[in-house]
Design a protein that fits this description.
By secondary structure, the chain is α/β, with parallel strands linked by helices. The protein is built from 6 helices and 8 strands; from the N terminus they run H-E-E-E-H-E-H-E-H-E-E-H-E-H. Helix 3 packs across helix 4.
Length: 281
């Protein structure tokens, strides 16, 4: 058992280098190169590839990107399951400054009060700048899906098996993109890991299937995600939610030791993709 745990730990620690980096058309000429929206592509070995691709939207409070944990490690995990991973560098606040003057964090809402977030909008503090950044990031995410589809033949992908996995703030970006996406930019599926919506939710008529994962004791986030689940279901959409009862706050890819239920989220993700037909059983 100790050997198994060590093996799991080593597999989680593995990171990859991208084979391809492409800038998105949503960038601004005034952006510095490091701030320009782009994708980094991580393709699985040919003998494992199943045609599915996931655009990874990393967390970081819209001020930075948790790239190593949410993209590089996750890409290694997904590639091991034959899934192509595409890390998205999306628009962020220009500065990592403090909270706007005069604004304070709202009261913490626990999982039993999703009604505190009408239309599943769990954004703790709307500002004109903040809302504009979310919209720009959503444009980046839609452009990423379109670019993946445009390169699908080259990268040996199925154009009907391309979706999002967002972490924390990245989940909010993926949700915003999915709500307004059409045609080539529409994701085939939407997964969010402890990332609620950061704007009022209007579920599209052709809403993609939604997978939600979070921890019950993560203030505001859990309640916001319950509200998101309810909005999707009220609209007749396909949605599934997993609320893990151990631990607090966000989490990342972790070894499966059997010590917690949260650590099984990545396994649950693969099972869901198989059940929905995006990955071969």
């Amino acid at each position: 058992m100790k050997g198994f745990s060590l093996l799991c730990l080593l597999s989680v620690a593995i990171t990859l280098s991208a084979q391809t980096r492409l800038y998105l058309s949503t960038g601004d000429r005034s952006d510095e190169e490091k701030d320009s929206p782009m994708i980094e592509v991580y393709l699985p070995k040919e003998e494992l590839a199943n045609g599915c691709a996931i655009v990874l939207c990393p967390g970081g409070a819209m001020r930075w990107l948790s790239w190593e944990s949410d993209v590089e490690r996750m890409a290694a995990f997904l590639n091991g399951h034959g899934i192509a991973a595409v890390g998205l560098r999306y628009h962020l606040y220009k500065s990592q400054g403090k909270m706007p003057q005069g604004m304070t964090m709202p009261p913490m809402v626990d999982v039993t009060h999703p009604d505190h977030f009408p239309k599943a909008d769990a954004n703790p503090m709307h500002t004109a700048e903040g809302d504009s950044i979310i919209q720009l990031a959503a444009l980046d995410a839609k452009a990423a899906i379109r670019m993946v589809r445009e390169h699908a033949d080259e990268w040996h992908l199925r154009k009907d098996r391309i979706g999002f996995l967002g972490f924390s703030a990245g989940g909010g970006v993926a949700i915003a993109a999915a709500m307004s996406a059409e045609g080539m930019e529409r994701p085939d599926f939407l997964c969010t890991n402890f990332g609620p919506s950061l704007m009022p939710v209007t579920v599209p008529a052709d809403a993609p299937p939604l997978l939600i994962m979070t921890r019950a004791d993560h203030p505001n986030v859990a309640a916001g995600l319950v509200a998101l689940f309810m909005e999707w279901k009220r609209a007749g959409g396909n949605a599934e939610i997993h609320i893990y009862g151990d631990g607090k706050g966000p989490y990342e890819l972790m070894p499966e030791t059997g010590e917690t239920t949260t650590e099984s989220w990545s396994h649950q993700l693969i099972l869901w993709l198989k059940a929905k037909g995006f990955v071969k059983r």
